Amino acid sequence: MAGESAREMPAQSSPAQEELAYRRRQIRDALLTVGSPIIMIALWELSVQTKLMDARFFPAPSSIVGTFGQLIVTGTLLADVWVTLVRVVIGLLLGGIPGLILGAMMGLSEPVRAFMKPIVAALFPIPKIAILPLILLIFGLGETSKYVSIAIGVIFLMLINTMAGVMAIDKIHFDVGRNFGADRWQFFSTIAVPGAMPGIMTGLQLSLTVALLLCVATEFVGARSGLGYLIWNSWQTFAVATMYCGLVVCALLGVAFQLVIDLLERFLIPWKTHQ
Predict the structure, then answer these.
(1) Measuring CA to CA, how many Å separate 270 from each of 20, 27, 69, 206, 251?
(2) Nearest alpha carbon to residue 214 among 142, 101, 141, 131
(3) Of 16, 31, 22, which Cα lies nearest the Cα of 274?
(4) Which contacts of 260-269 are long-range, i.e. CB under 8 A and separated by 24 or more positions?
(5) Which of 81, 159, 161, 215 is 20 to 30 A (C-alpha) from 68?
């Protein structure tokens, strides 16, 4: 019986085997990450070449590459990308920092949470693009209206995810802080923010994506630069290949944002990357 029990016990893997398995999963995931867009582009090219897709509306990737080269040589594409990135970063900071602070306060304090919850519940579902005319009316067609539009879209995402992260922290951490006489700032900086970091990173990832979406949308109206202007102007002149270049760059920026978030997670919450 003892021998049968021993045979039924699963063999425990050594730390070296676990590390090797983790490395293999990393390589597998990297190959899948690189392979999926390559397969999609290949299918797109094949569909256009075999006339399954109309090249007037869906130009082949090979033709878009040539347009990319022209836009880069003239400096148009890089200038528009830079303008959009600056707007995204400024709007993200204007909305993300207050959202993080308010979210942490709501997570730490029941009175603050009770006061803010109805306001958040009422304002968050309003489509941010729907209030763009009001923002333009108040702030005009300049840069300020674009920053405000992005900030309004970002603040709720950071607030909700930060609040959820703080509320998920084990109560024992707060008890330890009280026993050591931690003040409000120490509760915020040493317990709430570090403990809620997974939720904060999720909020940051969503905020970056929404900031790019809102920035491009606001650049459709009253802008003379940026990826949104490039896409809208190309549509008006029926420069389809140029329009697709703008769309592809938006997609590449989304991938770049994800890589940045992954790097930040490795640095700020390294235990999550090994799960």
Answers:
(1) 18, 18, 39, 20, 27
(2) 131
(3) 22
(4) 260/208, 261/201, 261/204, 261/205, 261/208, 264/201, 264/204, 265/201, 268/197, 268/201, 269/197, 269/198, 269/201
(5) 215
Whole-number Å distance between alpha carbons of 251 and 255: 6
Tokens linked to 156: 């709720």
Name, in order, each residue with C-beta under 8 angstroms of 31's C-beta and a sequence gap of 6 or more.
none
Q: Largest alpha-carbon pair distance within the chain?
A: 83
Distance separating alpha carbons of residues 246 and 122, to the nearest angstrom: 34
Question: How many CB atoms lie under 10 A from the CB of residue 236?
Answer: 9
pLDDT string in tens for the chain (275-residue length)? 445 554 555 556 677 777 777 778 878 877 777 777 788 888 888 887 887 877 777 888 887 888 888 888 888 889 999 999 999 999 999 999 999 999 988 888 889 889 988 988 888 888 888 888 888 888 887 888 899 999 999 999 999 999 988 888 778 877 777 777 777 777 777 777 788 888 888 889 899 999 999 999 888 887 788 888 999 988 888 888 888 888 889 988 988 998 888 888 888 777 665 45
Q: Which residues, including other chains, have CB under 8 Å from residue 83's CB and lie 6 or more apart? A: 225, 226
Contact 146, 91 (CB under 8 A): yes
Q: Is 209 exposed, middle or buried (0-12, 13-18, 19+ CB in 10 A)?
A: middle
Where do the domains of the chain lie, and which CATH numbers do they carry?
60-273 (1.10.3720.10)
Residue 149 token pair: 């539009």
Tokens, residue 197: 């970091």
